[in-house]
Structure formats: C-alpha cells, structure tokens
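hi! just following up on the protien thing from before. the input was this:
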Amino acid sequence: MWGLWFVPLVILLLLVATASGLLWFFAAPKDRRPKITTVVAVPIGCAGMLIIGLPLLAAFGSLFTKSDTHLYEEIFGYRPTLTEDRMLFDDFGSRSDREIFMRAEPTDAERKKLLAIPGSVESNFTLGQFIARGAQRGFTWWMSANSLDDGYCKSARILDAHGFRGWIEFRIAECLDAGAEFPASTNVGKVYVIASHRTE
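and the predicted 3d structure came back as:
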C-alpha cells in the first residue's frame, strides 16, 4: 500500500529539502554561505534516505505481519491449496480477543473441503447479520447486500462450527447465486469466514 504514496512523498520531500537548502544559502552571511554542492546535497540526501529507508521499513514490518497462508493455517490448522491471490484476510487482536475475517475463491474441491468443518451445523445467523459483521469493520471486500456491488450476494449457505480449533465463534458462508441474475457481481461461489475469540 505504501507504494501508492511513495513517489508523491519523494517529490514533496525534494521540494521541502530544496527550499530549506536555498533558505540556508541565502539566509547565511555572504562570507559564511555553504558551497553550492553542499546545498544541492541536502535534497538529494533526503530523497536518498527516503528511497532506501521506506522499502527497508516495509520489509522489516513484513516480518511481523502474517501472510495469508499463515492466517489460513491459523484458522483451519492446515496449509491451504488456495494460492494467496485467491484469498483475502483482515485480522485483529491476539489470543482471547483474536478475530480473523477471510474471503476465498476456491475450486469446487477446495470449497467442499472448506465447508466440511467437523461439527458444523446450519446457522440461524441471517445473511444480513453476516454481511453486517464485515460492514462494522469497514471492509470493502466483504459480501454485500447491494446488487450493484462486486461482492453482492443474494443468498448464502451459512454454517456454524463454534468451538472448532478453539474458536468461540466460527461461521462460514458460501455465496450461492449472485452471478447469473446480477452480472455486476463476481461473488458467486466465494466463501467467507468469521473466526472470533480463541479459548486456546
């Protein structure tokens, strides 16, 4: 995400550093003015530090951020066959306050495996309630009740498997019939998961 504002930030820093260098040059007494090469080095040095530093910070931060594969494994207890470009996650908290929200675009075989949760039962949770859980978090990628959205879902099969792998709340939903009737939606067949609060 930082890549979206990286170039504008470098340009802004160059402008600020250039203005600072010029101010330093013209504000100094004539006999004590810095060399032109020193003034020019100020913006170049600042931009160089930013260009080198931000990627290093991003790489360092990634060491403490779980990948989608690791989040999937945290939810289900096994490594996925789904590639990371077919999964999307947001996670919050830790231990007893842990929450993970997931969207997956599985193959038929992967979908069958995802929905075969031990001890799962048909949920009394409505589609509207399921959609609201993601809306409360402000997700733009969650299933939607708006027929103009990519994530529109007219109906879904929702299963509860509370207690699965220590999750106090575990719900999984399969969007059933979004695509054919509503061409704007690309949501048909996607699977959504809410895994919330762990006891272990």
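The chain has two domains: 3-62, 68-198.
The longest strand covers residues 167-175.
cheers
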